[in-house]
Write a structure and sequence with these properties.
With 228 residues, the chain is of the alpha/beta class. It has 8 helices and 12 strands. It binds calcium ion.
């Protein structure tokens, strides 16, 4: 069972999130103030923290920085606005992922599972295997069908992020925030170019995809071609 600390001052939202996550098999501990949450998180060591940025007693971003100074616990930030600048600031401050309010329990549950997969992959000796693709998070080496891939740092980061969410469509906006961590004027072009390079190195093309499936207008997902 995963223990999730939910920091949320709105009692109604906290109750709904607690119910939704409990139904999905998580143990939930709620906190309604930032400073109260900080002590509890340090003491109780939850597996993951869901942190509302708009708290009454302390700025959520400030709390995140304080937490990062003392704990490596994965943090998913809940933000009220779909504001790219804010999302980038929170990722830079050490958030592992984010959800935009209002979010569903299903979405939050999926983000929690993805974050934990990434953390466990980072921690473990075991490389991530998806079909013939192997990603070693520690050495940052990727191979396809036993052949080492010659990847740039960003290409590896992109594959790694997609592998953490395997089988899920990941939006280009999320990839820009999580992998590039900075805004771009014509943003999606950057991702398209990197995806095209990755496809070449994976031995596939947009017309004949295997691992990388684009969903027009939504994003891209990494799949095991044998499952697809
Ligand atoms: Ca709030």
């Amino acid at each position: 069972m995963t223990t999730v600390a939910v920091v949320e001052d709105d009692a109604e939202i906290l109750a709904a999130v607690t119910r939704g996550l409990t139904e999905r098999g998580h143990a939930v501990r709620g906190a309604r103030t930032g400073l109260g949450a900080l002590g509890e998180i340090v003491e109780q060591r939850p597996d993951v923290v869901v942190l509302d940025l708009g708290l009454p007693d302390i700025d959520g971003l400030e709390l995140l920085r304080m937490l990062r100074a003392v704990s490596a616990v994965p943090v998913i930030v809940a933000t009220a606005r779909d504001d790219e600048q804010e999302i980038i600031r929170t990722l830079d401050a050490g958030a592992d992922d984010y959800v935009v309010k209002p979010y569903s329990a299903d979405q939050l549950d999926a983000r929690i599972r993805a974050v934990l997969r990434r953390v466990r992959a980072d921690d473990g000796d075991e490389p991530v295997r998806i079909g013939g693709l192997t990603l070693d998070g520690r050495s940052r080496v990727a191979s396809i069908d036993g052949q080492t891939m010659d990847l740039s740092r960003k290409e590896f980061d992109l594959l790694w992020h997609l592998a953490g969410r395997r089988g899920e469509v990941v939006s280009k906006r999320e990839l820009l925030a999580a992998v590039w961590r900075q805004p771009y004027g014509g943003p999606e072009k950057t991702i398209d170019v990197h995806l095209s390079w990755l496809r070449g190195k994976l031995g596939e093309s947009a017309r004949e995809p295997r691992y990388l499936r684009s969903v027009r207008g939504v994003g891209v997902m990494l799949v095991d071609p044998e499952d697809a």
